[in-house]
TrEMBL record:
It comes from the Bacteria. This is Type II/IV secretion system protein. Residues 1-21 are annotated as: Disordered. The lineage of its organism: Bacteria, Bacillati, Actinomycetota, Actinomycetes, Propionibacteriales. Residues 1-18 have a biased composition (Low complexity). InterPro entries: P-loop_NTPase.
Amino acid sequence: MGAGTMSTTHSHSASSTMDRLASRVAQGGVVTIEEAYRQIAHNISLLVHVELTDDTWRGGLRQRRISEIRQLTGGVDGDRPSTHLTWQARSTSAAPAGFTPDVTLLGELARFRRGPT
């Protein structure tokens, strides 16, 4: 595991972030969209989507919450990077809310686990 990097971009979901990044990379004309997706698959580990809820119009608050985390598996499924839904805030018809990491990610996170206090 390397030193790591963090970056931000605006997108509607963790999955749509891959499309946004790939289109920006391919826009330069140096690499194809397929190569951009391949680079994303091999060089990004996690996509974290932060959702903004703005209820100020009715006297409420602007709040940001993590709504979804997707792990990129390193593979490509079709033309897009393969992902695993690791965490989501709300249940959907496709998956329940909660933390469901794959075995690889659990192994990588194990060294950060706190013991009994």
